[in-house]
Amino acid sequence: EVQLVESGGGLVQPGGSLRLSCAASGFIFSNYGMSWVRQAPGKGLEWVSFINSSTTTYADSVKGRFTISGDNAKNTLYLQMNSLKPEDTAVYYCVKGAMRGQGTQVTVSS
Asked: Strands 90-96 and 99-100, how do they pair?
């Protein structure tokens, strides 16, 4: 059974940093590309970043501030988020294909 469990969200001031984690199980982590998406209050899902064995890509809104990475030994996906802005406030989900986890809330506010 495929499982994706996000963690690491919280309340942070503008300009602060957070690192999100996504613990994956039920599949060979290194064989698949994975993404982070987010959903702000009252808005639809927004793609944030993607990683596979050969590339990483980012939405323009987070480029230069967020870094996606994966640890194959730990079957864990990460999203390092720096220079956070209030508009980054959202529930963040990790995604594999059509599956996503339960999400973790990130709130950027003073």
From this structure: antiparallel
